[in-house]
Amino acid sequence: MPQIRISEAARFLGVSDDTVRRWTENGTLTPQKDTAGRLAVDGLELATLARSQSHLPEDPTRPGSSARNRFVGLVTGITADKVMAQVELQCGPFRVVSLMSSEAVRELGLELGSVATAVVKATTVIIETPQGKSII
Q: With DSSP H G I counted as helix, E B as strand and the rest as coil, what are the percentages for the chain, rounded to 5?
């Protein structure tokens, strides 16, 4: 399993280095030493912790849908002209951008600060690794 240094683990979880160190001290994460002798944690254990701690707000509409990738967030930006609009949502730590008609923005009543849900249904998702390799 890959080992993740404490500073990197903190960055992935959005917490301080000290918080990750406390988690290694209280047993939340198992401390390890990397090849250079620095404090590290197991990548899979870190991923499991990240998943257990990631909670987006519940979708207030809860419609029936085959789409599983739903991101509830706040509208943080709307750039619109006569025909098209770009709408930005802040969904937890993620920025989600959608292009839609200006008419749709008006019909949905979207405005800065309003709650909305981004629904993503895609046939292609590209995953990249730090080594620069991509897997489709």
A: 25, 35, 40
Q: Check: CB of residue 29 under 8 Å from CB of residue 20.
A: yes
Neighbour-count burial of 8, counting CB atoms closer than 10 A to its CB (0-12 exposed, 13-18 middle, 19+ buried): middle
Helix runs in 14-128, H state only: 17-26, 43-53, 102-108
Residue whose token pair is 């406390």: 22
The band of 80, judged by pLDDT with boundaries at 50, 70 and 90, is very high
Q: Are 42 and 32 in contact (CB under 8 A)?
A: yes
Prediction pTM value: 0.58
**Mean pLDDT throughout 18-24?**
95
Phi, psi (degrees; rounded to nearest 5) at 83: -110, -45
Q: Quote the CA–CA distance of 20 and 39 in Å, as a whole number.
A: 10
